[in-house]
Amino acid sequence: MAATQEEIVAGLADIVNEIAGIPVEDVKLDKSFTDDLDVDSLSMVEVVVAAEERFDVKIPDEDVKNLKTVGDATDYILKHQA
Amino acid sequence: MSSTNRTVVVTGIGATTPLGGDVASTWEGLVAGRSGVKPLTQEWAAEQAVRIAAPVAVEPTETIPRPQARRLDRSAQFALIAAQEAWQDAGFTGKAGEDGAVDPDRLGAVIASGIGGVTTLLDQYDVLKEKGVRRVSPHTVPMLMPNGPSANVGLLVGARAGVHTPVSACASGAEAIGYAIEMIRTGRADVVVAGGTEAAIHPLPIAAFGNMMAMSKNNEDPEGASRPYDVARDGFVLGEGAGVLVLESAEHAAARGARVYAEAVGQGISADSHDIVQPEPEGRGISHALHNLLDRTDLDPAEIVHVNAHATSTPAGDVAELKALRKVFGDHADHMAVSATKSMTGHLLGGAGGVESVATVLALYNRVAPPTINVDNLDPEAEANADVVRGSARKLPAEGRIAALNDSFGFGGHNVVLAFRTI
């Protein structure tokens, strides 16, 4: 069953918390991974791989650069999840 | 600044070892004669011939936050803990530059490891095989590269004069400190954070060292397994951890009013050119390193009252080192208190030179030589060539200038002798 926007944000919050140590409540749609959430380019790869697994979605490397905010990633997953 | 023969001193020390998570607890364990060797209880250990090791007393994740720890190899975690302690111990309050007492362009870091990020490499290979290409961590390369600990310590303190990683197996940590002394002596840097680290308690290194017949298989008596100079010694016990010094030019230390533990007099280096792993049995290469030390520094042999020996608890190596001390120092070898602290810490490979330099510096500063434990029956060849401190710690001369050596030798035939003395 496809995840809702709320479920995706909550899932991304868990992932960002695990990888960057940011409190889950700080992970919101308008937050930038690099500027607000301490996710650098290497850690972004980890976030993407964890999100692919969690939401059963493929995020090709060339699309990763467009995922600047939590909202970008949420929209992408909503659109592409199996 | 262009001077090429500056005096170098030790102004900070840090360690995380099988005896304790910092210098104070490590030193307390060394002087008390405590063993850090334990049975390996992991599932993978059951099928190993060697089922003992000396793990760190305090897990690094108790002090390093999880998000940071998960992108650092265990060897880099140890190095950062030891370097942070040494840096604070030296009186610095922040990174170079933020703390105006040290210029980042005049600060170096030289942290060595014998094997590098071996647990990262092997664990990520397991991930590759079991979960596929996509799941291999993007942090793998900076975690497994052998210069990773040095680079991370360089970032921690803000070192811009140069960050280096000499590799010479079990002599690596000592070679790092020797390299750092030369950086300061020749004017490349005013302050260098230097030492060694190792984290290799993993089934592959243990199986490999075990199959070389290099390790003790005394699984029934872990605390008695590392027994340098005892007739029943049967190989080393693998330890893990890190030891780090802050080295500084004497002028720079004096200008900022730093506490000085000891002078780092210099190093003697040689290579055996004998065998890839076997020590040259008469200690020829070690003698050569000792002569190089005496020829290239103003060290007075009569002042040397203590040696922190390499002594890993192997049948051939322990005695070869003592023969070299006898050959080079003659009758004076009877007045040098020889301590094999690996009897307590196990053998930290590339970390050994770092931890044992910390121990050597403290032996001078506190004027106490730690004991060699587990010597129930002293090997007659050891007895004939040296004065081994056995059983309990021994006081060193309370008055006058005294000096001490820290020996480290590595597979490949690398010999490094470091000399320190009181100021």
TrEMBL record, chain A:
Residues covered by the Carrier domain: 6-81
PTM text: 4'-phosphopantetheine is transferred from CoA to a specific serine of apo-ACP by AcpS. This modification is essential for activity because fatty acids are bound in thioester linkage to the sulfhydryl of the prosthetic group.
Keyword Lipid metabolism: yes
Compartments where found: Cytoplasm
SUPFAM superfamilies: ACP-like (SSF47336)
Pfam hit, one: PP-binding
HAMAP family referenced in this protein's UniProt entry, alphabetically: Acyl_carrier
Family indicated by similarity: Belongs to the acyl carrier protein (ACP) family.
Protein name: Acyl carrier protein
UniProtKB/TrEMBL annotation, chain B:
Pathway: Lipid metabolism; fatty acid biosynthesis
Record key words, sorted: Acyltransferase, Fatty acid biosynthesis, Fatty acid metabolism, Lipid biosynthesis, Lipid metabolism, Transferase
PROSITE patterns cross-referenced by the UniProt entry: KS3_2
Pfam families according to UniProt: ketoacyl-synt, Ketoacyl-synt_C
Reaction equations catalysed: (9Z)-hexadecenoyl-[ACP] + malonyl-[ACP] + H(+) = 3-oxo-(11Z)-octadecenoyl-[ACP] + holo-[ACP] + CO2; a fatty acyl-[ACP] + malonyl-[ACP] + H(+) = a 3-oxoacyl-[ACP] + holo-[ACP] + CO2
EC number: 2.3.1.179
CDD domains registered for this protein in UniProt: KAS_I_II
Domain Ketosynthase family 3 (KS3), chain residue ranges per copy: 5-422
InterPro entries: 3-oxoacyl-ACP_synth-2, Beta-ketoacyl_synthase, Ketoacyl_synth_C, Ketoacyl_synth_N, PKS_Beta-ketoAc_synthase_dom, Thiolase-like
Highest taxon listed in the record's lineage: Bacteria
SMART domains listed in its UniProt record: PKS_KS
Purpose of the protein: Involved in the type II fatty acid elongation cycle. Catalyzes the elongation of a wide range of acyl-ACP by the addition of two carbons from malonyl-ACP to an acyl acceptor. Can efficiently catalyze the conversion of palmitoleoyl-ACP (cis-hexadec-9-enoyl-ACP) to cis-vaccenoyl-ACP (cis-octadec-11-enoyl-ACP), an essential step in the thermal regulation of fatty acid composition.
Annotated family: Belongs to the thiolase-like superfamily. Beta-ketoacyl-ACP synthases family.
Protein name (record): 3-oxoacyl-[acyl-carrier-protein] synthase 2
